[in-house]
Amino acid sequence: MTLNFLRLPILLKALTFSFAVIGFGSCSQEEKMFELKSSADTGIAFQNTLTSNDSINLLNFEYFYNGGGVAVGDLNNDGLQDVFFTGNMVSAKLYLNKGNLKFEDITQQAGVETASWATGASMVDINNDGLLDIYVCMSGYKDPNRRKNLLFINKGMGTDNNPLFEEEAEKFGLADTGYTTQAVFFDYDRDGDVDVYLATVNRSDTNPNVIASKPGQSSSVDRLYRNNGNNTFTNVSEEAGIIKEGYGLGVGIGDMNQDGWPDIYVTNDFIYDDLLYINNQDGTFTESIRDYLKHTSHFSMGTDIADFNNDGLPDIISVDMMPDDSRRQKLMNGIKNYDEFQLALQRGYMPQYVRNNLQLNNGNGSFSEISQLAGIHYTDWSWSPLFADFDNDGIKDLFITNGIGKDITHLDFATYYMAQARSSFGNEGAETHLLKIAETMEGAKKHNFMYRNNGDLTFTDESKNWGFAQESFSSGAAYADLDNDGDLDIVISNVDEEPFVYQNMVSEQAQRRKENKGEGADSRNYLRIKFEGAATNKTGIGAKAVLRYGNKMQVGEQYPFRGFQSTVENTLHFGLGSTEQVDVLEITWPDGKYQALRNVKPNQVLTVSYRNATERSTKEEPAANQASLFKEVTAEAGISYKDKGQEFIDFKLQPLLPHKYSQNGPGVSVGDVDGDGLEDFYVGGSATNSGTLFLQGRDGKFSSKALTSEEKPGEDMGSLFFDADNDGDLDLYVVSGGSNYITGDKAYQDRLYLNDGKGKFTLDASALPLINASGSCVTAADYDNDGDLDLFVGGRVHPRAFPLPAKSYILQNNGGKFKDVTGTVGPMLSDIGMVTSALWTDFDNDNAVDLVVVGEWMPVTFLKNVNGKLKDVTSSTELSGTHGWWNSLAAGDFDNDGDVDFVAGNLGLNSKFKASEEQPVQVYAKDFDKSGTTDAIMTHYIQGKKQLVHGRDDMTDQMVSMRREFRTYEDYATKSFDEIFTAERLEGAYTAKSENFKTSYIENLGNGKFRITALPMQAQFAPVCGITINDYDGDGNLDMLLVGNSYATEVVVGRYDAFTGLYLKGNGKGQFLPVDVNRSGFMVDSDAKGMAEVSTAEGSPLLLIASHNDSLKAYKPAARQEALHAVSILPSDAYAILTLANGKKRKQEFYFGSGYLSQSSRTLWLPAGTKSVQVVDKAGKLRLEISDVSRTFAANRRGR
């Protein structure tokens, strides 16, 4: 044998991290929900046994251990689901269900034996004779004659009611010789019969991990066969637009854009993008994944499409191979190659990350990937994901198989393999030697995963509690009600072991509880729907069922080809919990015909028939959407701006960073800079680029100009319009930040630009003291009551020395010249932490302006103003466990009780980093290896044990000396943090922690006491940055808008990109309702940073959202019942007290700077029904009182 060096990188998926392209209520213990049946019980004794040989083995066929598929269906129409297994190196097996979970092997007499490498199995009535047929995909061998797909046509019943089959793939035109993984049948052209899509791979000498100069060109392309209507099929792939390359391991069908036509999602292995083919309704498809998804899994394997959150929209899961335990994570996690990841993006590939992906359908053509929030992101070497309601509670759970016979991703083996391959290139016997080494590798043998759906977009791992503790090398799987008791059983194909048959005991347990407790105890009702389709689609493939009961709904689509290489039962199963009646059951058939059944009782198998369907009448159509609450008006407002900056790669200087600090902007600041009575705004510039001023005209449109033509090296962070020199116009303070330069570099000097009163700004280089910290925010208040505005400037990061705190400043205004008084006014600020946002606010209502500060690795910090000195009173606020990765801070009296509450944007919960007070994320920093640099060691908890975040390669990049300490990956992976970093080693290290990553509402309880509550789950999808607060819907209560995401992450963590912006509707009691994006109309799915409100010429607020390396957007409220009343506020005004329509009092403060790096208009917007207003200045004096708001503004309108 000669070693095929070209193919070597294909064999080792782990090497794509290191050497190739990129990385990156439960049952009791005694009574399990599922019971594993033995082969002695079931009669199912099949084994998919694999034996390496010279012609096919692990080294020359990378999918040697992928395993086989399972298909279930009633082949003899006796009402019992039969089971078919594919075999790779053994024949397929067919087991006839004899009832009571007893099965009989009828493979030989049925005529369904196979002799080649079978993969996927699909049961479909392909000739519409009322009998299910079996289509088998073939792969493995290079001889195309051994790869012909098989079609076993059901010829009816022989003796003992056993089905008989004849192989007729050639006759039907379906003897495809591609390396096929799975076949899915669906009516893509809606001509009434079912067509077939084949997911394929390409066993060639091309390395599928190499970043192509132009992705999309490859011989590895899937196939689409059109049904000709006469029991023959024609390959129409090219003419239908199925032309994109891939390594297809999974395929799912669903109506992704809700246009009534089936679309195709394909999960592709290696560097190849997953594919989303959108049906053009004319017999063709357009590959559109970039239009719908932000990123995908990297080594995408199986997939399923289902509505897991019962909002009526199909969601997508794809599975990958990242383990859930620390040891195996570190044995797979080699060098994260940032440059190659960026190269892949530049050449047109999607961002891909090594973890399961759960794509939540937003209903507007976008998806949010929330696997980490859901808690299902790491399930090891995974194959078959299946959504189904296994506990009959009315929401779909998630089952995932996993395991691999030989774990060649082990980095020690990968390193050895590549070294041997290079030294032995062309040598006879090298492959034999390496194969022997490979065969000694351990497998990844783990239990399969079962997740219970919590109903709040999260899942709980119930694998062991529900009975899935058995370790295995599992691959294909299918669910079906094998014993007809109303719950879903599971059949799993294993490699080198007998299959698993799990009996679901939900019905039995519910019946026992009912007998013990009486009628209705813990009901687990269900409804099962069978389809009698049209003559050309007997099983109703593509039919859609919608259940409505109370205020709930469930949706299912009749596509049984799911998971990995498998087919589930062709009956739709819905758990109903305690529901005793489905109010309406709507059936939509593939051709659009419709029927509705009312008052449907549970606990039955209901057959619906196409012959009872009719054309859908107009009155049955869904109600039209309500008008959106917000409208994008960027172009209308004359705004055209895109943030542009040169990338700086922080990771090359500190490989252990969690994210970059060089792309945190831009921010937005608002003020009337030219004195024309109209508010203008400023957008910060990136390093070397000037910021931009936008001047508002009388027509409400904005014109732009650069702030300055002078060169500036620093990146603009926070900015602030305020009258620095008391000359009656607004000057501009700009914070310099980023991480491009070393600490102390002049690039970090903040800048004050003086206004000539007409909007022309000149840098005053002498106004500020020396500031050499990389900063973040700036906010102003007259803390010392001397009549001018002083400043707090937040220090963001210590470049090259993360996570050491940067210095923050109190700058005292002395006639337009600023003095650093931090040491006397607030000495704790010199090293308070990595500050991101702050507010000057009177949080205890004592008429002295206090300071609240948040930041990364910081608690929400309360600094009380005591006679012009700041005192840290955080410990007395009754808040605990608030250390987080906070980004932003905003305030409003949300519960209308006369004091100010806060909203703080945090990392969110959709991250690999999970934190609590008991199990915090921590960082330790010092020069551990005495190399003259700061080494930052991050830890988090995995399975209850404190572990290092980074792998050996990252750690040795930071500290080369560790190569000697840990000569193998195994040495490093088996050690916990405490074993590597002993107390002696940690002595003198700077430490910080985070316990809370939830974006939160902080309620002011009065007397300096607070209570923190997480905002709704939709606010936790990604880091929240921009925040604005107003009564956007005119109901008299304060609402909020949030934007965020972060693309500054390192490759293993991956982009935080799931957020699409969020409108949270307040109820006046400190509670918030997330409003769906299709109702709100507020859609910001970019790397959003600063957000601010500006008052327009027409007298309404305009929302400005700035995004890193993206276009600025503008939105306006669009569905208010009546216009907002605007009250002009003077620079000296501190707050207002509003008496609302319901008699409650609301306090509203006026801020110079809030949110994230931003400053909103200080206009006082009065909600509808406001009775009276009192405006109080910073000296505590009543400046303005409007005792009858409605009469005053009516008079003003008449006067105009």
UniProtKB/TrEMBL annotation:
InterPro entries: Crtac1, FG-GAP, Integrin_alpha_N, UnbV_ASPIC
Keywords of the record: Signal
Cytoplasm recorded as keyword: no
Superkingdom, natural source: Bacteria
Gene3D superfamilies in alphabetical order: Integrin alpha, N-terminal
Signal peptide stretch: none
Keyword Signal: yes
Stretches assigned to the ASPIC/UnbV domain: 540-607
Protein name: RNA-binding protein
Organism of this sequence: Pontibacter diazotrophicus
